[in-house]
Amino acid sequence: MARVGKKILEFDSEQDVAVDLSTKISELSAKYIKEKGYFTVVLSGGTLIDTLRKLVEKRDVDWSKWIIFFLDERVVPLTVPDSNYKLAYDGFLSKVGIPKSNIYSIKEKVTPEEAADDYEARLKQLVANKTLPLSPNGFPIFDLMLVGMGPEGHVASLFCWHFQRYETQRWITFIKASPKPPAERITMTFPVINASKHIAMVVTGKEVADAVKVALHESDRGFAYIPLPVQMVSPTNGELTWYLDKDALSKMQGGH
Ligand SMILES: O=C(O)[C@H](O)[C@@H](O)[C@H](O)[C@H](O)COP(=O)(O)O
Predict the structure, then answer these.
(1) Which helix (H) or strand (E) holds 213?
(2) How far, in Å, CA of 49 to CA of 17, rounded?
(3) Ligand 1 pocket list (CB less than 6 A)
(4) Pfam families recorded for this chain (predicted)?
(5) CA of 183 to the centre of ligand 1 (A)
(6) In the sheet that 185-188 helps form, which strands lie side by side, from edge to edge?
(7) SS3 of 25, please?
(8) How far is the CA of 165 from the centre of ligand 1 (A)?
(9) 137: number of Cβ within 10 Å
(10) What integer pLDDT is reported at residue 5 of this predicted model?
């Protein structure tokens, strides 16, 4: 299947990333709302939510047409600080006018298995009612996925030494021993991530510089190595854009 190349955008500061990203997201929002009447957006947790602060200031976004999903979520009550929903709600969603019924948070008070099954079943309903299109290989297609990366190269809750990153069938899976606390989480799988129309890798700060160096192929590791999870982000038909600040690029020597 045709793989589309990646675009790498470099910025002087995280603030510049926040500004440019907000412009790109509002343009995509206008485009998809014009084309089909709504815009499907998948959010990561972590520092990404703070980087969306400039988006909140955009006056011309029709928030009522946004539909929000979570790339991964901790299996905790939605009201505790560990919840990605709470992080996103406090830092972003509560500041804009997205209808609550358009926000797909996970089911509470269930096991990780049940939470993953429930989230996948709800996505299947959205495919059945034609809100989400299906890719030729059978995965739901989101308009925009906003993806953060951990210092050791994980994305979503797909970690280096954990099998979930090799999932090829499920749309949503679970992990009970996440190396990043809290331990119990659900996560979208790589086939779903890679089916997206637009993937924005939003990666800032010095802590991620080593993983950025590996991910952008300026690594002294030999030929035979296991790729970092972030290196498995590779849209099948969509666009991948990296948003990086100077700190994140600080270990690169000869550019990329
Ligand atoms: O549940 C989570 O922790 C996040 O959704 C996770 O996937 C996050 O995006 C990365 O860990 C990067 O997080 P930072 O930006 O905070 O490093």
Answers:
(1) helix 209-215
(2) 13
(3) 44-48, 71-72, 74, 84, 148-150, 154, 156-157, 180
(4) Glucosamine_iso
(5) 13
(6) 72-74, 185-188, 172-175
(7) helix
(8) 15
(9) 11
(10) 65
Ligand 1 geometric centre to CA of 148 (Å)? 6
CATH class of 6-245: alpha beta
- The reported pTM is 0.95
Q: What is the pLDDT of residue 1?
A: 39
- Residue 206 CA to ligand 1 centre (angstroms): 15
**Mutation to probe ligand 1, out of 42, 43, 44 (largest number of atoms < 8 A from CB):** 44
Q: Which atom of ligand 1 is nearest to the CA of 44?
A: 5
Domain ranges for the chain: 6-245
Q: What is the pLDDT of residue 4?
A: 55
Give the count of alpha carbons within 13 A of 119, CB side only.
32
State the pLDDT at residue 150: 98
pLDDT reported for residue 217? 78
Ligand 1 centroid to residue 161 C-alpha, Å: 16
Of 157, 150, 152, 169, the residue nearest 106 (C-alpha): 157
Query: Rounded distance, CA 256 to CA 218, Å?
Result: 7
Check if the beta carbon of residue 237 is closer than 8 Å to that of residue 3.
no
Q: What is the mean pLDDT of each run of 10 residues along the chain (256 residues)?
A: 71 98 98 98 97 96 98 98 98 95 98 98 98 97 98 98 97 98 98 98 98 80 78 96 98 72
Task: Tally the C-alpha atoms within 13 A of residue 130's C-alpha that lie toward its C-beta.
Answer: 2
Please state the φ and ψ torsions of residue 134, each to the nearest 5 degrees: -110, 135
